Amino acid sequence: MNALRPALQVLLVEDSASDALFIEEALADVQDFEACPTRAEWLSHAIEHAQTAPCDVVLLDLGLPDSQGPDTFRRFHRQVPSVPVLVLTGLDDILIGLQAIQEGAQDYLLKRDIEVSLLSRAIRYAIERHRVAAELAASKERFQLAVNGASAGLWDWDLGTDLVYFSPHFKEIMDYQDDEPADENHALLDAIHPDDIERVRAALAAHLEQRSPYDVEYRVNLRSGTSRWVESRGQALWNGAGQPYRMVGWIMDVTDRKRDEEALRISREELRRLSAHIQHVREEEKARIARELHDDLGQQLTALKMGLAEIEIRLKGQAVATQTVRDRLSDMSRLIDMTVASVRRIAADLRPVMLDDLGLMPAIDWLVNDFTDRYGIDVERRIDPGDTTFTGVGATTLFRIVQEALTNVARHANATAVVLTLCIEGGCCMLRVADNGRGGRIVDGGGSDRQDQSFGLVGIRERAHMIGGSVTIDTADGKGFSITVTFPLHAVQQQEVLP
Q: Residue positions of the PTM 4-aspartylphosphate (predicted)?
Protein backbone atom coordinates (compact mmCIF):
# COMPACT_ATOMS: atom_id res chain seq x y z
CA MET A 1 0.00 0.00 0.00
CA ASN A 2 1.25 3.46 -0.90
CA ALA A 3 1.57 5.54 2.31
CA LEU A 4 0.81 8.69 0.32
CA ARG A 5 -2.33 7.05 -1.07
CA PRO A 6 -4.13 5.43 1.88
CA ALA A 7 -6.54 2.57 1.40
CA LEU A 8 -10.20 3.14 2.28
CA GLN A 9 -12.72 0.36 2.78
CA VAL A 10 -15.82 1.45 0.83
CA LEU A 11 -19.11 -0.39 1.28
CA LEU A 12 -21.25 0.13 -1.86
CA VAL A 13 -24.90 -0.73 -1.18
CA GLU A 14 -26.47 -0.88 -4.66
CA ASP A 15 -28.74 -3.52 -6.21
CA SER A 16 -28.35 -2.25 -9.78
CA ALA A 17 -25.43 -4.01 -11.45
CA SER A 18 -24.97 -1.24 -14.03
CA ASP A 19 -25.02 1.56 -11.41
CA ALA A 20 -22.63 -0.41 -9.20
CA LEU A 21 -20.21 -0.96 -12.09
CA PHE A 22 -20.31 2.75 -12.95
CA ILE A 23 -19.52 3.77 -9.38
CA GLU A 24 -16.82 1.13 -8.95
CA GLU A 25 -15.12 2.38 -12.13
CA ALA A 26 -15.17 5.93 -10.75
CA LEU A 27 -13.70 4.70 -7.47
CA ALA A 28 -10.93 2.95 -9.34
CA ASP A 29 -9.89 6.25 -10.95
CA VAL A 30 -9.68 8.21 -7.66
CA GLN A 31 -6.15 9.46 -7.05
CA ASP A 32 -6.39 10.75 -3.47
CA PHE A 33 -6.83 7.32 -1.95
CA GLU A 34 -7.03 3.65 -2.89
CA ALA A 35 -10.68 2.60 -2.76
CA CYS A 36 -11.31 -1.01 -1.74
CA PRO A 37 -15.01 -1.46 -2.56
CA THR A 38 -17.28 -4.20 -1.24
CA ARG A 39 -20.73 -4.44 -2.75
CA ALA A 40 -23.96 -5.43 -1.00
CA GLU A 41 -27.29 -5.65 -2.82
CA TRP A 42 -29.54 -5.96 0.24
CA LEU A 43 -29.74 -3.63 3.24
CA SER A 44 -29.62 -6.54 5.67
CA HIS A 45 -26.38 -7.78 4.08
CA ALA A 46 -24.91 -4.28 4.23
CA ILE A 47 -25.69 -3.93 7.94
CA GLU A 48 -24.19 -7.32 8.68
CA HIS A 49 -21.01 -6.47 6.75
CA ALA A 50 -20.58 -3.05 8.38
CA GLN A 51 -20.98 -4.58 11.83
CA THR A 52 -18.41 -7.33 11.27
CA ALA A 53 -15.81 -5.97 8.82
CA PRO A 54 -13.72 -2.78 8.61
CA CYS A 55 -15.60 0.01 6.84
CA ASP A 56 -14.48 3.62 6.34
CA VAL A 57 -17.46 4.96 4.37
CA VAL A 58 -20.78 3.71 2.96
CA LEU A 59 -22.33 4.63 -0.40
CA LEU A 60 -26.01 3.83 0.19
CA ASP A 61 -28.71 3.59 -2.49
CA LEU A 62 -32.14 4.25 -0.95
CA GLY A 63 -34.01 1.86 -3.25
CA LEU A 64 -33.13 -1.71 -2.34
CA PRO A 65 -34.98 -5.03 -2.56
CA ASP A 66 -35.59 -5.09 1.20
CA SER A 67 -35.92 -1.36 1.91
CA GLN A 68 -37.17 1.74 0.12
CA GLY A 69 -36.91 5.50 0.62
CA PRO A 70 -35.74 7.46 3.68
CA ASP A 71 -36.30 4.47 5.97
CA THR A 72 -33.34 2.77 4.26
CA PHE A 73 -30.92 5.29 5.72
CA ARG A 74 -32.67 5.37 9.10
CA ARG A 75 -32.40 1.58 9.48
CA PHE A 76 -28.73 1.51 8.50
CA HIS A 77 -27.79 4.51 10.66
CA ARG A 78 -29.65 3.08 13.64
CA GLN A 79 -27.72 -0.20 13.38
CA VAL A 80 -24.32 1.25 12.35
CA PRO A 81 -24.08 4.85 13.63
CA SER A 82 -20.27 4.84 13.68
CA VAL A 83 -19.74 4.83 9.89
CA PRO A 84 -20.19 7.91 7.65
CA VAL A 85 -22.86 7.47 4.96
CA LEU A 86 -23.19 9.08 1.53
CA VAL A 87 -26.70 8.66 0.12
CA LEU A 88 -27.06 7.85 -3.59
CA THR A 89 -30.19 9.34 -5.17
CA GLY A 90 -31.81 9.71 -8.55
CA LEU A 91 -32.88 13.03 -10.06
CA ASP A 92 -36.29 12.82 -8.38
CA ASP A 93 -34.87 11.93 -4.94
CA ILE A 94 -32.99 15.17 -4.14
CA LEU A 95 -35.33 16.17 -1.33
CA ILE A 96 -35.04 12.68 0.15
CA GLY A 97 -31.27 13.15 0.06
CA LEU A 98 -31.57 16.45 1.91
CA GLN A 99 -33.79 14.81 4.51
CA ALA A 100 -31.21 12.08 4.97
CA ILE A 101 -28.56 14.75 5.64
CA GLN A 102 -30.80 16.30 8.28
CA GLU A 103 -31.11 12.86 9.92
CA GLY A 104 -27.37 12.16 9.99
CA ALA A 105 -26.11 11.33 6.50
CA GLN A 106 -22.95 13.20 5.53
CA ASP A 107 -24.02 14.09 1.98
CA TYR A 108 -26.05 12.92 -1.02
CA LEU A 109 -24.90 12.29 -4.58
CA LEU A 110 -27.00 12.29 -7.73
CA LYS A 111 -26.15 9.10 -9.57
CA ARG A 112 -26.14 10.76 -12.96
CA ASP A 113 -23.70 13.46 -11.77
CA ILE A 114 -21.14 11.15 -10.19
CA GLU A 115 -17.65 11.66 -11.56
CA VAL A 116 -14.22 10.95 -10.15
CA SER A 117 -13.34 14.32 -8.58
CA LEU A 118 -16.82 14.84 -7.09
CA LEU A 119 -16.88 11.31 -5.67
CA SER A 120 -13.38 11.65 -4.22
CA ARG A 121 -14.13 15.00 -2.61
CA ALA A 122 -17.49 13.84 -1.22
CA ILE A 123 -15.91 10.74 0.39
CA ARG A 124 -13.04 12.72 1.94
CA TYR A 125 -15.38 15.42 3.25
CA ALA A 126 -17.82 12.83 4.62
CA ILE A 127 -15.09 11.02 6.55
CA GLU A 128 -13.68 14.30 7.89
CA ARG A 129 -17.10 15.68 8.93
CA HIS A 130 -17.91 12.38 10.62
CA ARG A 131 -14.58 12.50 12.44
CA VAL A 132 -15.21 16.06 13.63
CA ALA A 133 -18.73 15.15 14.79
CA ALA A 134 -17.39 12.10 16.61
CA GLU A 135 -14.71 14.20 18.27
CA LEU A 136 -17.33 16.73 19.30
CA ALA A 137 -19.49 13.98 20.83
CA ALA A 138 -16.44 12.56 22.58
CA SER A 139 -15.54 16.01 23.86
CA LYS A 140 -19.02 16.44 25.35
CA GLU A 141 -18.76 13.00 26.93
CA ARG A 142 -15.40 13.91 28.43
CA PHE A 143 -16.96 17.08 29.78
CA GLN A 144 -19.71 15.15 31.54
CA LEU A 145 -17.26 12.61 32.96
CA ALA A 146 -15.08 15.43 34.24
CA VAL A 147 -18.04 17.02 36.02
CA ASN A 148 -19.04 13.71 37.56
CA GLY A 149 -15.48 13.12 38.68
CA ALA A 150 -15.15 16.60 40.24
CA SER A 151 -12.27 17.39 37.91
CA ALA A 152 -13.59 20.85 37.06
CA GLY A 153 -11.97 23.94 38.47
CA LEU A 154 -13.96 24.95 41.54
CA TRP A 155 -14.47 28.41 43.03
CA ASP A 156 -16.23 29.52 46.20
CA TRP A 157 -17.10 33.20 46.51
CA ASP A 158 -17.95 34.92 49.82
CA LEU A 159 -20.05 37.90 48.74
CA GLY A 160 -19.68 39.57 52.13
CA THR A 161 -15.87 39.74 52.06
CA ASP A 162 -15.49 39.43 48.24
CA LEU A 163 -12.90 36.71 48.86
CA VAL A 164 -12.81 33.67 46.56
CA TYR A 165 -11.35 30.23 46.95
CA PHE A 166 -9.85 28.78 43.76
CA SER A 167 -9.17 25.04 43.57
CA PRO A 168 -5.85 23.72 42.23
CA HIS A 169 -7.47 22.56 39.01
CA PHE A 170 -9.03 25.98 38.59
CA LYS A 171 -5.55 27.51 38.76
CA GLU A 172 -4.31 24.91 36.30
CA ILE A 173 -7.04 25.84 33.81
CA MET A 174 -6.25 29.53 34.25
CA ASP A 175 -2.49 28.93 33.92
CA TYR A 176 -1.80 30.33 37.41
CA GLN A 177 0.97 29.42 39.84
CA ASP A 178 0.02 27.91 43.19
CA ASP A 179 0.22 31.29 44.92
CA GLU A 180 -1.84 33.03 42.22
CA PRO A 181 -4.21 34.73 41.85
CA ALA A 182 -5.14 36.85 44.82
CA ASP A 183 -8.20 35.40 46.55
CA GLU A 184 -10.43 38.23 45.39
CA ASN A 185 -13.30 38.19 42.93
CA HIS A 186 -11.80 40.87 40.69
CA ALA A 187 -8.85 38.54 39.98
CA LEU A 188 -11.16 36.29 37.96
CA LEU A 189 -13.04 39.16 36.35
CA ASP A 190 -9.76 40.79 35.31
CA ALA A 191 -8.80 37.66 33.37
CA ILE A 192 -11.99 37.61 31.28
CA HIS A 193 -11.60 38.70 27.66
CA PRO A 194 -12.68 42.35 27.20
CA ASP A 195 -15.24 41.36 24.54
CA ASP A 196 -16.93 38.95 26.96
CA ILE A 197 -16.78 40.79 30.30
CA GLU A 198 -20.08 42.67 30.01
CA ARG A 199 -21.93 39.48 29.03
CA VAL A 200 -20.48 37.66 32.06
CA ARG A 201 -21.36 40.55 34.40
CA ALA A 202 -24.93 40.58 33.03
CA ALA A 203 -25.34 36.81 33.56
CA LEU A 204 -23.94 37.09 37.09
CA ALA A 205 -26.24 40.01 37.97
CA ALA A 206 -29.28 38.17 36.57
CA HIS A 207 -28.48 35.17 38.75
CA LEU A 208 -27.95 37.16 41.96
CA GLU A 209 -30.89 39.54 41.45
CA GLN A 210 -33.43 37.40 39.58
CA ARG A 211 -32.14 33.91 40.41
CA SER A 212 -31.76 33.08 36.72
CA PRO A 213 -29.46 30.11 36.00
CA TYR A 214 -25.80 31.06 35.81
CA ASP A 215 -24.33 29.16 32.88
CA VAL A 216 -22.03 31.10 30.60
CA GLU A 217 -19.15 30.47 28.23
CA TYR A 218 -16.41 33.04 27.79
CA ARG A 219 -12.76 33.51 26.98
CA VAL A 220 -10.04 34.11 29.55
CA ASN A 221 -6.66 35.66 28.85
CA LEU A 222 -3.66 33.64 29.98
CA ARG A 223 -0.31 34.96 31.08
CA SER A 224 1.24 33.47 27.95
CA GLY A 225 -0.71 35.95 25.87
CA THR A 226 -3.10 33.34 24.47
CA SER A 227 -6.76 32.88 25.34
CA ARG A 228 -8.83 29.90 26.35
CA TRP A 229 -12.56 29.13 26.28
CA VAL A 230 -14.14 28.11 29.57
CA GLU A 231 -17.65 27.18 30.61
CA SER A 232 -18.70 28.43 34.02
CA ARG A 233 -21.69 27.43 36.11
CA GLY A 234 -22.59 28.53 39.58
CA GLN A 235 -25.25 28.60 42.26
CA ALA A 236 -25.78 31.31 44.84
CA LEU A 237 -27.16 30.92 48.35
CA TRP A 238 -29.62 33.47 49.76
CA ASN A 239 -30.29 34.31 53.43
CA GLY A 240 -33.67 34.70 55.07
CA ALA A 241 -33.88 38.29 53.88
CA GLY A 242 -33.43 37.18 50.28
CA GLN A 243 -29.89 38.54 50.03
CA PRO A 244 -27.19 36.42 48.36
CA TYR A 245 -24.28 35.76 50.68
CA ARG A 246 -22.33 32.99 48.94
CA MET A 247 -21.90 31.58 45.46
CA VAL A 248 -20.20 28.31 44.52
CA GLY A 249 -19.38 27.17 41.01
CA TRP A 250 -16.87 25.68 38.64
CA ILE A 251 -15.20 26.31 35.33
CA MET A 252 -14.29 23.80 32.64
CA ASP A 253 -11.84 24.23 29.80
CA VAL A 254 -13.96 23.84 26.64
CA THR A 255 -11.43 25.16 24.12
CA ASP A 256 -11.31 21.88 22.20
CA ARG A 257 -15.09 21.67 22.06
CA LYS A 258 -15.41 25.24 20.81
CA ARG A 259 -12.76 24.53 18.19
CA ASP A 260 -14.62 21.40 17.10
CA GLU A 261 -17.92 23.28 16.99
CA GLU A 262 -16.35 25.95 14.82
CA ALA A 263 -14.89 23.29 12.52
CA LEU A 264 -18.29 21.63 12.27
CA ARG A 265 -19.98 24.97 11.57
CA ILE A 266 -17.51 25.71 8.78
CA SER A 267 -18.05 22.22 7.38
CA ARG A 268 -21.82 22.75 7.33
CA GLU A 269 -21.40 26.11 5.64
CA GLU A 270 -19.22 24.47 3.00
CA LEU A 271 -21.88 21.82 2.51
CA ARG A 272 -24.58 24.48 2.13
CA ARG A 273 -22.44 26.40 -0.36
CA LEU A 274 -21.88 23.17 -2.28
CA SER A 275 -25.62 22.53 -2.28
CA ALA A 276 -26.25 26.07 -3.55
CA HIS A 277 -23.64 25.58 -6.26
CA ILE A 278 -25.23 22.29 -7.34
CA GLN A 279 -28.61 24.00 -7.44
CA HIS A 280 -27.18 26.80 -9.57
CA VAL A 281 -25.52 24.34 -11.96
CA ARG A 282 -28.76 22.39 -12.28
CA GLU A 283 -30.69 25.56 -13.12
CA GLU A 284 -28.13 26.51 -15.75
CA GLU A 285 -28.26 23.02 -17.25
CA LYS A 286 -32.05 23.08 -17.26
CA ALA A 287 -32.01 26.47 -18.96
CA ARG A 288 -29.55 25.25 -21.60
CA ILE A 289 -31.54 22.08 -22.36
CA ALA A 290 -34.83 23.99 -22.41
CA ARG A 291 -33.38 26.58 -24.80
CA GLU A 292 -32.02 23.92 -27.15
CA LEU A 293 -35.32 22.05 -27.09
CA HIS A 294 -37.32 25.20 -27.65
CA ASP A 295 -35.10 26.80 -30.29
CA ASP A 296 -33.10 24.14 -32.13
CA LEU A 297 -35.36 21.11 -32.00
CA GLY A 298 -38.49 23.24 -32.25
CA GLN A 299 -37.20 25.00 -35.36
CA GLN A 300 -36.16 21.71 -36.96
CA LEU A 301 -39.59 20.18 -36.35
CA THR A 302 -41.25 23.28 -37.74
CA ALA A 303 -39.10 23.06 -40.87
CA LEU A 304 -40.00 19.39 -41.21
CA LYS A 305 -43.68 20.29 -40.88
CA MET A 306 -43.36 22.90 -43.61
CA GLY A 307 -41.59 20.39 -45.86
CA LEU A 308 -44.41 17.88 -45.46
CA ALA A 309 -46.95 20.59 -46.20
CA GLU A 310 -45.12 21.46 -49.42
CA ILE A 311 -45.10 17.80 -50.48
CA GLU A 312 -48.82 17.52 -49.82
CA ILE A 313 -49.48 20.58 -52.00
CA ARG A 314 -47.45 19.16 -54.87
CA LEU A 315 -49.12 15.73 -54.67
CA LYS A 316 -52.57 17.26 -54.97
CA GLY A 317 -51.96 17.93 -58.66
CA GLN A 318 -50.59 14.49 -59.43
CA ALA A 319 -52.93 11.65 -60.21
CA VAL A 320 -50.18 9.12 -59.48
CA ALA A 321 -50.26 9.83 -55.78
CA THR A 322 -52.51 7.37 -54.05
CA GLN A 323 -54.85 8.18 -51.22
CA THR A 324 -52.73 5.95 -48.99
CA VAL A 325 -49.71 8.21 -49.54
CA ARG A 326 -51.76 11.30 -48.80
CA ASP A 327 -53.17 9.73 -45.63
CA ARG A 328 -49.68 8.71 -44.53
CA LEU A 329 -48.40 12.28 -45.05
CA SER A 330 -51.33 13.62 -43.05
CA ASP A 331 -50.56 11.20 -40.19
CA MET A 332 -46.91 12.27 -40.22
CA SER A 333 -47.97 15.92 -40.09
CA ARG A 334 -50.16 15.27 -37.04
CA LEU A 335 -47.34 13.35 -35.38
CA ILE A 336 -45.00 16.31 -35.91
CA ASP A 337 -47.61 18.63 -34.35
CA MET A 338 -47.81 16.35 -31.32
CA THR A 339 -44.00 16.20 -31.09
CA VAL A 340 -43.71 19.99 -31.26
CA ALA A 341 -46.27 20.30 -28.46
CA SER A 342 -44.38 17.73 -26.36
CA VAL A 343 -41.06 19.49 -26.92
CA ARG A 344 -42.56 22.82 -25.84
CA ARG A 345 -44.13 21.25 -22.76
CA ILE A 346 -40.90 19.49 -21.71
CA ALA A 347 -38.88 22.67 -22.27
CA ALA A 348 -41.33 24.70 -20.21
CA ASP A 349 -41.29 22.14 -17.40
CA LEU A 350 -37.48 22.26 -17.32
CA ARG A 351 -37.36 26.04 -17.28
CA PRO A 352 -39.77 28.48 -18.99
CA VAL A 353 -37.85 30.37 -21.64
CA MET A 354 -39.86 33.48 -20.77
CA LEU A 355 -38.29 33.53 -17.29
CA ASP A 356 -35.01 34.48 -18.95
CA ASP A 357 -36.48 36.45 -21.87
CA LEU A 358 -39.36 38.38 -20.26
CA GLY A 359 -38.70 38.15 -16.52
CA LEU A 360 -40.37 36.86 -13.37
CA MET A 361 -43.88 38.29 -13.66
CA PRO A 362 -44.72 36.87 -17.13
CA ALA A 363 -43.21 33.55 -16.09
CA ILE A 364 -45.43 33.41 -12.98
CA ASP A 365 -48.46 34.34 -15.12
CA TRP A 366 -47.67 31.46 -17.47
CA LEU A 367 -47.13 29.07 -14.54
CA VAL A 368 -50.42 30.04 -12.87
CA ASN A 369 -52.39 29.80 -16.14
CA ASP A 370 -50.90 26.37 -16.86
CA PHE A 371 -51.70 25.27 -13.28
CA THR A 372 -55.33 26.37 -13.63
CA ASP A 373 -55.68 24.71 -17.05
CA ARG A 374 -54.23 21.42 -15.78
CA TYR A 375 -56.00 21.11 -12.43
CA GLY A 376 -59.03 23.39 -12.67
CA ILE A 377 -58.05 25.26 -9.48
CA ASP A 378 -58.65 29.02 -9.51
CA VAL A 379 -55.70 31.20 -8.49
CA GLU A 380 -56.29 34.75 -7.27
CA ARG A 381 -53.20 36.85 -7.98
CA ARG A 382 -52.22 39.66 -5.65
CA ILE A 383 -48.94 40.57 -7.25
CA ASP A 384 -47.49 44.02 -6.74
CA PRO A 385 -43.68 44.11 -6.99
CA GLY A 386 -43.68 47.85 -7.63
CA ASP A 387 -40.69 48.93 -9.67
CA THR A 388 -38.48 46.14 -8.35
CA THR A 389 -36.11 44.55 -10.85
CA PHE A 390 -35.23 41.06 -9.71
CA THR A 391 -31.81 39.46 -10.01
CA GLY A 392 -31.45 36.23 -11.96
CA VAL A 393 -30.97 34.24 -8.75
CA GLY A 394 -33.85 36.04 -7.05
CA ALA A 395 -36.21 35.48 -9.98
CA THR A 396 -35.30 31.80 -10.22
CA THR A 397 -35.72 31.29 -6.47
CA LEU A 398 -39.14 32.97 -6.36
CA PHE A 399 -40.35 31.13 -9.48
CA ARG A 400 -39.24 27.72 -8.19
CA ILE A 401 -40.86 28.33 -4.78
CA VAL A 402 -44.17 29.27 -6.44
CA GLN A 403 -43.85 26.20 -8.68
CA GLU A 404 -43.17 23.86 -5.74
CA ALA A 405 -45.94 25.41 -3.63
CA LEU A 406 -48.51 25.00 -6.42
CA THR A 407 -47.33 21.43 -6.98
CA ASN A 408 -48.00 20.72 -3.30
CA VAL A 409 -51.48 22.21 -3.66
CA ALA A 410 -52.25 20.03 -6.66
CA ARG A 411 -50.96 16.85 -5.02
CA HIS A 412 -52.08 17.17 -1.43
CA ALA A 413 -54.51 20.00 -0.69
CA ASN A 414 -57.85 18.97 -2.27
CA ALA A 415 -58.30 22.71 -2.75
CA THR A 416 -60.59 24.64 -5.07
CA ALA A 417 -58.92 28.03 -4.78
CA VAL A 418 -55.49 29.48 -4.19
CA VAL A 419 -54.36 33.00 -3.34
CA LEU A 420 -50.89 33.95 -4.61
CA THR A 421 -49.39 37.09 -3.05
CA LEU A 422 -46.12 38.75 -4.01
CA CYS A 423 -45.33 42.21 -2.69
CA ILE A 424 -42.63 44.51 -1.38
CA GLU A 425 -43.09 45.85 2.13
CA GLY A 426 -40.80 47.15 4.84
CA GLY A 427 -37.59 46.47 2.96
CA CYS A 428 -38.60 42.84 2.38
CA CYS A 429 -39.98 40.79 -0.47
CA MET A 430 -42.90 38.66 0.72
CA LEU A 431 -44.27 35.66 -1.19
CA ARG A 432 -47.30 33.73 0.08
CA VAL A 433 -49.24 30.81 -1.39
CA ALA A 434 -52.45 29.98 0.50
CA ASP A 435 -55.12 27.41 -0.38
CA ASN A 436 -58.55 26.51 0.99
CA GLY A 437 -57.85 22.80 1.12
CA ARG A 438 -57.79 20.23 3.89
CA GLY A 439 -54.76 21.67 5.69
CA GLY A 440 -52.64 19.54 7.96
CA ARG A 441 -50.90 19.32 11.30
CA ILE A 442 -47.37 20.77 11.52
CA VAL A 443 -44.83 18.50 13.19
CA ASP A 444 -41.62 19.47 14.97
CA GLY A 445 -39.16 21.19 12.68
CA GLY A 446 -41.87 22.99 10.72
CA GLY A 447 -42.60 20.18 8.27
CA SER A 448 -45.94 18.65 7.39
CA ASP A 449 -47.23 15.43 8.86
CA ARG A 450 -47.73 14.28 5.25
CA GLN A 451 -44.28 12.97 4.49
CA ASP A 452 -44.36 13.46 0.72
CA GLN A 453 -45.44 17.08 1.14
CA SER A 454 -42.70 17.67 3.72
CA PHE A 455 -40.09 16.89 1.04
CA GLY A 456 -41.44 19.80 -1.01
CA LEU A 457 -41.25 22.04 2.05
CA VAL A 458 -37.62 21.02 2.60
CA GLY A 459 -36.82 22.16 -0.94
CA ILE A 460 -38.58 25.48 -0.38
CA ARG A 461 -36.71 26.05 2.90
CA GLU A 462 -33.38 25.22 1.27
CA ARG A 463 -33.96 27.62 -1.62
CA ALA A 464 -35.09 30.38 0.72
CA HIS A 465 -32.19 29.89 3.13
CA MET A 466 -29.62 30.08 0.33
CA ILE A 467 -30.36 33.78 -0.18
CA GLY A 468 -31.19 34.70 3.40
CA GLY A 469 -34.94 34.06 3.37
CA SER A 470 -37.21 32.62 6.06
CA VAL A 471 -40.26 30.35 5.79
CA THR A 472 -43.36 30.27 7.98
CA ILE A 473 -46.35 27.92 7.71
CA ASP A 474 -49.90 28.43 8.92
CA THR A 475 -52.30 25.49 8.72
CA ALA A 476 -54.89 23.49 10.57
CA ASP A 477 -57.07 20.52 9.71
CA GLY A 478 -59.82 21.63 7.36
CA LYS A 479 -58.63 25.26 7.32
CA GLY A 480 -56.26 25.31 4.41
CA PHE A 481 -52.51 25.59 4.13
CA SER A 482 -50.48 28.78 3.83
CA ILE A 483 -46.74 29.10 3.26
CA THR A 484 -45.05 32.48 3.51
CA VAL A 485 -41.49 33.15 2.38
CA THR A 486 -39.81 36.44 3.27
CA PHE A 487 -36.54 37.71 1.78
CA PRO A 488 -34.47 40.79 2.47
CA LEU A 489 -35.16 43.00 -0.54
CA HIS A 490 -31.45 43.40 -1.31
CA ALA A 491 -31.16 39.61 -1.70
CA VAL A 492 -33.53 39.50 -4.70
CA GLN A 493 -33.39 43.04 -6.11
CA GLN A 494 -31.09 44.07 -8.93
CA GLN A 495 -28.77 46.76 -7.61
CA GLU A 496 -28.50 49.92 -9.64
CA VAL A 497 -25.11 50.56 -11.19
CA LEU A 498 -24.20 54.22 -10.95
CA PRO A 499 -22.54 55.76 -14.04
A: 61
